[in-house]
Each structure stands twice: as structure tokens, then as C-alpha cells.
Amino acid sequence: MLLDVTELSISFKSIYGYAKILDNISLNINKGEIVGIVGESGSGKSVTALSILGLLANNASVDGGSIMYAGKDLLTMREKEIQNLRGKEIGMVFQEPMTALNPTMKIGKQLANVIRKHRDVSRQEALALAVESLRDVQIPDPETVANKYPFQLSGGMRQRVVIALAMSAPPKLLIADEPTTALDVTVQDEILKLMKKLTVEKKTSILFITHDLGVVSKLCDRVYVMYGGKIVESGLTKEVLYQSKHPYTKGLIESIPENKAKEQPLKVIEGEAFNPKKRPAGCIFYDRCPLHSDKCKTAPPIAHFGETHWTSCWEVD
């Protein structure tokens, strides 16, 4: 097992006190596996990614749990040790590539700087490897692109550059935080195929964070469904998408426009978005669940459906 997150809880401090954002979440990734985390905005997906990378804000507090990477607990590592892992063994692809690229530096030089940080090569060798990295992510005419600035490239091309940056070591684990959200459908499909190809060729595991179940169905081997900082369902992608058990997972699937009958109104998940300051004592989905009853006011048990599929719900079949 490459990554094993166990009972991780994280709170953030504000002028109103502490708000729990992650509540005892557990997930794992095996070598060469693509695992998805899906959920609406505010569910805790990005905080999970940042906690693995050791990039939590100063007002964050780890209340418990462990993050084991290759047998080492990232939460007990010194900052310098984690910095050595970032980029070299754990890469990151962000949603908006312009936040990851220096707008005043040419693409080739940015890639070369990252390569020289993690490999013992000369400046000229690093520049040559930078061009090869661009070629690996299927950028046409990589020599020309290496001499361009980020603003001279399209959104899809910039995202390929960011993937090249993240894969330049290449890392054993790649964390992708909604990398296709701002792209059109055609470019999105190209990026997904590229990431799957790189996983096979470079043997890199991917933790893919998204709110789009369509993306999950195309890319991921397994998926965790997150709501309100808790994982409410998990299993093989086909199990979760076609044999979903939790009311929230079912609500997400029914909210996909392609799944509705012709001329029927689009289904929505009723109620207000989750507020961490109003965390219920029992089931995290209690306030919005159409099936809730009095017993849901206490924490639900874990129900298993075979070796890989489970959910946390009182009302599940």
C-alpha cells in the first residue's frame, strides 16, 4: 500500500472558534491505482489533498489520525523532510494552472528548475529533459512551447504543462485537485486519457479529486464519496455508480443531467449546503436526507456489501 490515511480529523480556527472540516476519514491507495474522491464543494476534498502534502494553512489543527506514505507518517515529519517528498515522490496538479505557473518565466525554464531540484543534472541537460517532459504529455512542437510564457498558451495546454511539472521526477503519487473543471469537454477527455496513460507508463498512483461523477467513471478504479468532511460510501467505481447505497451518492447520480428522463425536471438534493458550524451529532447527511428518522440522530454503522463496497447509513437496504 502506497498511501494509508487513517481516522484523520482536521479543524480550522476562526474568530468564531474551531470548525471541524475533516471528521475521522480513512482512505488508501495502492501502487499503480487511480482513486477518486467525489463530493460537492465544501465537502473536504481539497483539505484532504493539502493535508497529505503538508500544505495546510496556519489556522489548521490536526485533531487526530495518521497519514502513512510508504510506511512513514507524514504528520510527524519535519518540514524539510516533507519538502523533499513534494515534487520528487508526491506531485500535485491544481484546478487552475495559472496558479501553479510563474507568469514571468518561460515554460522550459520552469520545468528545468523543477528537474534540477530533484535530479543531479546540468542546466543544459535539465532543459533537454524539460522538452522531453512536454513531449510526454503530448504537447505538439515542445521545443517551441518551452520558449513561451504561460499566458501565450491555451487553458488545456497550460494544464498539460502543469502535469508535465508534476510528473517530471516522476512521482510515485500524483494528487490531482479538479484538474479538468475549467476545460471544455473535448480537452477534458484528452487530459483524462493522458493521465491514465502516464499512470501506466510511469507506474504513478493518482488521487483524483472531483465533483464530477462522469470523470470518475472514465478514470478511477475506486472511489470515495465525501460529504461534510466524512466519507459516506466507498467501493469499486462500478459498485458505487451502479449499485449506490447511500442517499447522498444516489442524489449525486440523480442530479446528473444525462440521467434524467426526457422533459423531466432535473432532480436536486434538497436543503442547504453543509455548514461545518452546524455539524449534526448523528448522521452527517441528516438535515438533507429524504429517509432520515430518529435513529439517524446517532452515528450510523458501517454496512458492507462484499469485500470492497461499504457505506455509513442506518436506512441502507
Structure characterization notes:
There is one protein chain. This protein has 317 residues and is an alpha/beta fold. It has helices at 45-53, 79-85, 107-118, 123-136, 142-146, 155-167, 185-202, 213-219, 237-242, 247-254; strands at residues 3-14, 17-29, 34-38, 60-69, 72-73, 90-93, 173-177, 205-210, 222-227, 230-236, 302-305, 309-312.
Brief overview:
By secondary structure, this protein is an alpha/beta fold. It has 10 helices and 12 strands.
Features:
Rossmann fold, globular, alpha/beta, 10 helices, 31% helix, 317 residues, 8-stranded mixed beta sheet, 4-stranded antiparallel beta sheet, 12 strands
Write the layout of secondary structure elements.
Blueprint: E1 3-14, E2 17-29, E3 34-38, H1 45-53, E4 60-69, E5 72-73, H2 79-85, E6 90-93, H3 107-118, H4 123-136, H5 142-146, H6 155-167, E7 173-177, H7 185-202, E8 205-210, H8 213-219, E9 222-227, E10 230-236, H9 237-242, H10 247-254, E11 302-305, E12 309-312
Helix pairs in contact: 3-4, 4-6, 6-7
